[in-house]
Amino acid sequence: MEKKITLGIFGFGCVGQGLYNVLHHTKGINATIKKICIKHKYKKRPIDASFFTTDRNVLLNDPEIDVIVELIDDVPAAYEIVKTALKKKKAVVSANKKMIAEHFEELLQLQAENKVSFLYEASCCASIPIIRNLEEYYDNELLNSVEGILNGSTNYILTHIFQHNKSFEKALKEAQELGFAESDPRLDVEGYDAKYKLMIILVHAFGIVLHPGDVFNYGIQHLNDFDIRYAKEKNMTIKLIAKCRKVGNRVYALCMPKFVPVSDTLNKVNYEYNGLILEGAFSETQFFMGKGAGGNSTGSAVLSDISALTYDYKYEYKKMDQHLNYKYSNDHILEVFVRHNGKDVINPNDFESISVRYASSEYSYIIGKINLQQLISMKWLTSREINVILTENNT
Ligand code: HSE
Predict the structure, then answer these.
(1) What percent of the chain has pLDDT over 90?
(2) pLDDT greater than 80 at residue 369
(3) Is the per-residue pLDDT at 256 higher than 90?
(4) How far is residue 365 from each of residues 32, 216, 332, measured CA to CA in Å?
(5) Any idea which fold 5-130+295-316 has?
(6) This prediction's pTM
(7) Per-residue model confidence as pLDDT tens digits over 88-116
(8) Pocket of ligand 1 (CB under 6 A)
(9) What residues contact 272, with CB distance under 8 A and at least 6 apart?
(10) Mean pLDDT on 359-365
């Protein structure tokens, strides 16, 4: 039976205000906001001051508040709040992918020990209901892969670069102004944010809990005009993709830029939209697309979790219970394009094979096959003169 819930919200930034807005315009949801904990007392806010406090204990110690909604971007503080709330047997809704990815193991344990729900649909691709679908619809499906665009800010930047010839800096600034980017935008640009989301997906798709250091992320920070021209000449764009795929009994995952032919499904995903392609053994492929960043779209996913709590919904972590025993491994061969400046830092012996070598006075590149494990160990990955992009030939 649907029950009435009382909310204590942490954070009233872009997502907090988005939630307030969607909650306000949604009829029939049995949830009311009692208090909102904020950091800066004197900031002007669009709703009555009586809602606000700067003391987290006002929310955490209030027995009437049965659901804590955590929407702040200070990871250590979010972790303390979520941990305390779960220990006090309050259900928690969070949108904090970094915090969840960094503390997954412990958060799983806390939920089990305290028998409370911890829901986080909004942490992954905002408006796309991917976690609930993986949990409920794909519960018995043997998934082969989940691949897609999991970061709205970088997709916004890449869309503007490719469709409107905008500069990287200008597009990033806009993504920040529109509230899509993280407060430290390097998390978006360097692929960390998409990786955290991928780690959450790995738990619900394959039952694998990892530490952020286990999964390779390489962002779009080294992208230059040469790479963009190369893609355009070949009728392709570049997208920052995150993927996890099962090969036999092993699963690998990564977050990297990829050349995507203009006719490809992922090229339908533009601006702050996210898109996911799921491949199952029996269901074959499905494509999910929706807004991946922004106040209202993220707020709508938070609202859906709140609504699920009115009937005591919990993730059952079905893929973990099925003891699929997949082994995570970065031992996988990729085909990559490596643009460099002709100086002798790239050792061809690190590659399994090289199919193209191109040299010019401006830039040079090679296309070759390399083991992901080997790629991760390459010192030149951090060089600004080098950029690595997955070719379109990787499945
Ligand atoms: N910075 C994130 C993005 C926000 O751009 O996708 C949504 O998680």
Answers:
(1) 91
(2) yes
(3) yes
(4) 58, 22, 22
(5) Rossmann fold (3.40.50)
(6) 0.97
(7) 999 999 999 999 999 999 999 999 999 99
(8) 126, 151-153, 180-182, 188, 193, 292-293
(9) 152, 153, 155, 156, 175, 178, 180, 291, 292, 293, 294
(10) 94
Question: Which among 90, 195, 197, 319 is annotated as catalytic?
Answer: 197
Q: In terms of residues, how long is the chain?
A: 395
Contacts 24+ apart (CB under 8 A), 132-135: 132/304, 132/308, 133/288, 134/201, 134/204, 134/205, 134/319, 135/204, 135/315, 135/316, 135/317, 135/318
| 197 given a catalytic annotation | yes
Q: What is the mean pLDDT of residues 339-344?
A: 87
Which of 180, 199, 240, 298 gets mutated to test ligand 1 (max ligand atoms within 8 A of its CB)? 180
Q: Name the residue with the closest Cα to ligand 1, atom 4.
A: 293
- Residue 194 CA, closest ligand 1 atom number: 6
Whose CA is closest to 196, among 255, 271, 280? 255
The Cβ of residue 147 has, within 10 Å, a number of other Cβ atoms equal to 24
Contact assessment for residue 185 and residue 315, using Cβ atoms and an 8 Å cutoff: no
